[in-house]
Amino acid sequence: MARSEGTPQGGPLSPLLSNVLLDDLDKELERRGHAFCRYADDCNIYVRSQRAGERVMASLTRYLAERLKLTVNGAKSAVDRPWKRTFLGYTMTLHKAPRRLIAASSVTRFKGKLKAAFRAGRGRALGATIKDLSPILRGWMAYFRLTEGKGVLEEVDGWLRRRSRCILWRQWKKPTTRAMRLRQRGLTEQRACESAGNGRGPWWNAGASHMNDAFRKSFFDQLGLVSLQQELQRLNHAR
Asked: Which of 12, 106, 184, 192 has a CA positioned 20 to 30 A from the CA of residue 19?
């Protein structure tokens, strides 16, 4: 259906128009002395209590409707603790001096995107798949370079290596091939044969000790798999 009003979501004009229109909102929040952060039409306002939050939510909803003729999306708006909310993919810790973290929902979406890339790479050389992943990984880390939590990056790095081992295991369709590949990577003949015929699925084997011992982090470093932890260090040093 042809549009008769508004601008396309994600278009280059939308952020500009939102900033022009919501400049009055920024000035109103400053006038009231609120701590806030706004990007386009996404805004978080920080107050001291639940009661104050509910009062501010109600008053600003009226202000936006009456002064700016805008409707607040009730399904996406809430009064809640800061560490239970996300803003531009980030959240924060429950500390007196909070730290910025990558929100769990952002990690879940990112893994979903990478799963599709890994599925497409089952019939290709692993190095080619890793090469295709590199700009995706670097771009994601560049966006989240302000994170102050390293644990999630360590977890995703380990998940990436496991996904890569899973591709290898799937490509070695026969137990004899799996045993041969594991022996080539330094496992004893007995351990390689027992591991190759264990009857477990690809994902289990990708996380098992025999695949971790045969294909360590150094192997994937040589293939060019981007480490999110190391990429964050590089970005921080480049500031």
From this structure: 106
In angstroms, what is the C-alpha Rg of the chain? 24
The single-letter DSSP state of residue 75 is T
Structure tokens at 63: 């202000």
Contact present, 114 and 123 (Cβ < 8 Å)? no
Can you list the alpha helix ranges (DSSP code H) found in the chain? 13-32, 50-66, 104-120, 126-143, 151-171, 175-184, 189-196, 202-206, 209-214, 217-223, 228-237
The CA–CA distances, whole Å, from 61 to 69, 74, 77, 92, 133 equal: 10, 10, 10, 25, 43
Distance CA 46, CA 40 (A): 17
Per-residue pLDDT band for 2 (boundaries 50, 70, 90) equals: low
Helix 175-184 vs helix 189-196: crossing angle, to nearest 10: 140
pLDDT tens, position by position, 79-91: 999 899 999 999 9
Whole-number pLDDT of residue 54: 94
Would you say how long the chain is, in residues?
239
Angle between helices 228-237 and 126-143 (to 10 degrees): 50
